[in-house]
Fold this protein.
Amino acid sequence: MALQNTKVILKETPTGMPVADQFKVTQADIPALKNGEVLVKNQWLSLDPYMRSQISARHLSGAVLPGDTMKGETIAEVVESASEDFKPGDTVRCFGGWQSHAVLPANALTQVANNIEHTPHLLSILGMPGLTAYAGLIWQAKPQPGETVVVAAATGAVGSMIVQLAKQQGCRVVGIAGGKHKCDFALNELGADICIDRHTEDLGPALDKHCPNGINIYFDLIGGDILEQCSQRLAVNARIILCGLAADYNRTSSSPPPGPSPVYFIKSRATVFGLVVYDFEARRQEFIQACLPSVNSGAIKIKEQVVDGLARAPQGFVDLLSGDNFGKVLVKIN
């Protein structure tokens, strides 16, 4: 009997917020390997907000259409190899997708080094979310001691890394999060100086109170009103990192909503960076080498929310988009 692959496909393209029933778990045969290909068994799957743009056909990495297997980055074990570069038992990082197994070309796999103590970290603080935070804050914004850094979604996979990196650079960090439990985590575990609860506080007055001299660096992962409010309060020579569009992911119109007026950036002499993490892939090892000691020692930490099994991945994804998650969402593939 041929080895079967369990996978999650997109059943229908959502309008607005997705629901779990718009995805389907199905089975398929695993094809025989061709020369240069590798069969992997996925162990961990990363769930990320950008996937909402993929199923709307609005993402740089490509579209996911009805009937397609959902895309995603995974940690996997090599089961069979038709490449001299990998052998059964190797642990690799790859875009294995929302499935139990994947057949991929050998050049699409990256060997996991043996100094990674917790391999799921390569999908979080040592993976794409961590690289996003590091590239935007350290390489683009170049924070200076004493500057005020404002971080939206401060307890999420990217935001929690930004908070900790900014504190390491001697900055004053003001986080924005949804709910007292998240704000408590930002303050007590991540080290933020202030955390504004967007569920209970009026954001504009709260920013006025906690950023009396303006915002030196704003790392935007949300867009929408939070971007507008922060843009109105920039200090002279501020830096803005535009990275995420969580407020825009579920829009039904073909055109994006209007953004902040350029007057805010002109009067503050601000520098605005558009951040696409794929542009920094060539520097991933540099980032890992810089952060690995702090991660292994626990000086940099991440809260993981683990979804048990592929069948629960759709609901985990919906919870992520609705803000019901807490920390980095990972699927443990059984």
In short: The mean pLDDT is 94. The chain is about 25% helix and 25% strand. Residues 43 and 106 are 18 Å apart (CA to CA). The two ends are 20 Å apart (CA to CA).
